[in-house]
Amino acid sequence: MNRTLSPDDLKKLLASRKPLLVLDVRRRSDYDTDGQKIPGAAWLDPERLSQWSTALPLDRDIVIYCVRGGSVSNSVVDQLRAKGVKARFIEGGIEAWKQAGGETVPK
């Protein structure tokens, strides 16, 4: 499994209705500043990853995103994969998702 997926790949996955867990791992300040999120996404504080990561299912695909798909997403994916979680992140983060016409909802 690749460690990234494009916004278009995520659109296809969401349309397929395949069970998927979408996690918003933007830093608290970035999350608080933006009033939007991807539908169905749950925000989890990346600073508390060690506390919430153990509750994630190992049998489900997990897609995470931060603002631009940079250091936060890479770090979180690395740590989750080391724990056996099937995680990958959106290339370009929520900004690329929005530019690609991806749906957002008020958080």
Fold and architecture overview:
The chain contains five helices and seven strands. It is globular, with a radius of gyration of 13 Å. It has one domain (4-106): Rhodanese-like domain (Oxidized Rhodanese, domain 1), CATH 3.40.250. A five-stranded parallel β-sheet has the order 1-6-5-2-4. The model has no long low-confidence stretch (mean pLDDT 95). It is α/β, with parallel strands linked by helices and 107 residues long.
In short:
36% of the residues lie in helices and 21% in strands.
Which short descriptors sum up this protein?
two-stranded antiparallel sheet, globular, 5-stranded parallel β-sheet, 5 helices, alpha/beta, single chain, 107 residues
User: Largest beta sheet: what is the strand line-up?
Assistant: 1-6-5-2-4
- Which percent band covers the strand fraction? 15-25%
State mean pLDDT (0 to 100 scale). Answer: 95
- Major sheet attributes: 5 strands, parallel
CATH fold type: Oxidized Rhodanese, domain 1
- Report the structural category: alpha/beta
CATH class: Alpha Beta
CATH superfamily membership: Rhodanese-like domain
What is the overall silhouette? globular
Oligomer: single chain
* Secondary structure tally, helices: 5
Unreliably modeled segments: none
Please trace the helix and strand order, writing H or E for each element: EHEHEEHEHEHE
User: In total, how many domains does the architecture comprise?
Assistant: 1
Measured between the Cα atoms of the first and last residue, the distance is 29 Å
The proportion of residues forming helix, as a percent range, comes to: 25-40%
**Architecture, CATH level 2?**
3-Layer(aba) Sandwich
Number of strands: 7
